[in-house]
Amino acid sequence: MSSQHLEHLFLSGPAGRLQALYKAGEAGRPGVVLCHPHPQYGGTMRNKVVYWMGRAFERMGCSVLRFNFRGVEQSEGVWDNGDGEADDAAAALEWLHARAAGAPLWVAGFSFGSLAALKAAHADKRVERMFAVAPAVNLWSFNFLDHEERLVTVVSGTADEIVPFDDVRNWCEGHPSVRLHTIDGAGHFFPAHMDQMMAALVSDVNP
User: Fold this and answer.
1) pLDDT of 203 above 90
2) Which of 81, 144, 164, 178 could form a Cys-Cys staple with 152, CB 3.0–4.6 A?
3) Following CA atoms 41, 82, 94, 189 in sequence, which dihedral angle do they give, to the nearest 10 degrees?
4) Edge-to-edge, what's the strand order for the sheet holding 152-157?
5) What is the pLDDT of residues 34-57, one digit of tens each?
């Protein structure tokens, strides 16, 4: 996946322009919006886990849009405790829908990014699939998904030091549309398990 095809751009967000990276995929393949981890703890669209999540989707021929939440690097605005960040994700979905016209829309997030991604997807019925890696269910309420019927793929490591695995498992068991993929011994950032994370992320998708 050559970086020469990576497009650096700004898209319009509700709090100002949002810095983004876009890689176009194959015609007709899904477009995926990726949401990065908590910006107040150093999370950006260049986060290693988010990068490799993008690569997993790119290898399937998907178009991938990564972006920085408001107030991160060159994105305008200020931190908004998850609410505004979900609106940012919604704006990214709108941009991708227009850019990859006719392509199925997917959304994925890592850690805090899962909150923003899934909130935006829950409100946008055009989104066909949702993906969450180490969703921070111990720090945020994901109750908005209580009656969600679309498939949500969740990947979690059993040795996660930030989002306890038991919390993720218990949350997943209470949501019939959620499919949990466990990676034994993996920490929050999957330092020794990135390949397994990538494989698990796309394992529910029909080739």
Assistant:
1) yes
2) 178
3) 40
4) 7-13, 16-23, 63-67, 31-35, 105-110, 127-133, 152-157, 178-183
5) 999 999 999 999 999 999 999 999
Reported in sequence order, the residue ranges of 24-99 that DSSP labels E, i.e. its strands, are 31-35, 63-67
> Between the CA of residue 156 and those of 30, 66, 106, 129, 192, what are the distances in Å?
23, 21, 19, 18, 14
How many C-alpha atoms does 68 have within 13 Å on its Cβ side? 25
DSSP character at residue 69: P
Q: Is the pTM of this model over 0.90?
A: yes
Compute the distance between CA of residue 67 and CA of residue 117 in angstroms, rounded to an integer.
Answer: 12
Cα–Cα distance for residue pair 118/196, rounded to 1 Å? 22
All residues at 6 or more sequence positions from 178 whose CB lies less than 8 Å from its CB, including other chains: 145, 152, 154, 171, 172
Cα(41)–Cα(37) distance, rounded to whole angstroms? Answer: 8
Give me 182's structure tokens.
Answer: 């466990």
